[in-house]
Amino acid sequence: MHSHRPETLARGAEPARPGTLHARSVIADISVPPVPGRVVRFGRGGRPDVDLSVAEGDLRVSRRHGELTYREGKWWLRNTGQQLVRLPRGRMMHSSSGPIPLETGYTPLFVRGSGYREHLVELYVTDHDERGGGARQEDATLPPKRWPLDDEERLLLVVLGQHYLLYEECPRPLSYRQAAMELDYVCGEGVWGERRIERKVGAVRRRIERGGDFPYSVLREDDGAGPSDHNLLHNLLRGLVESTTLVPPDLELLDGDVDD
To answer: By residue range, what is the domain housing residue 43?
Structure first.
């Protein structure tokens, strides 16, 4: 049966047309035009089983671990392997999961392998405004979206989120009781307490939620369902650190050399 084969991504080639899929692993990269019905397969196997080889030698990765199909104007991702595929924001795909459409731009995915290994597959779908190629190389860099915090809010969130700012594996927030004890040391006893911390954190969460573009949920639903307050605080701190609203130099606030 005749099948369309992706073309290897050429350096310095003409700009790809909108919807072109660029896919890359550690050992291979391909570029595929947006042709209805086109299927791109990736996994441990080689040609003709897959178009993009991933994780050669890792027997936990399936020979055909996933595929992307172009239809309805989008590339649709499906997991066809035995191990999970992890997507941004912690989303997991099982072989029983339905296909999901890729947005234009960059999407990294990780294929579970042996032990703690994860194999990166980078996907990039060309957008309509990218036909100019490198014409915008001289443009100023767009900064990340950051959220305004006053001095008290920043100090409080640095105390609560210090494990996040140390980039520890699987960080969790300090409890309000722990934070109050540390704030007593930084600011003087009696300036902060658990109730004041709770009010301040709640005000930040409500303000950020009203903005509408924070990447994680930070408030409960109206009916009280959803993640616990501790998990919502985790979401808040994670989003603030990932956006560089809070950065490691902020830990200097814990030295006690701040104005009350």
So the answer is: 21-127
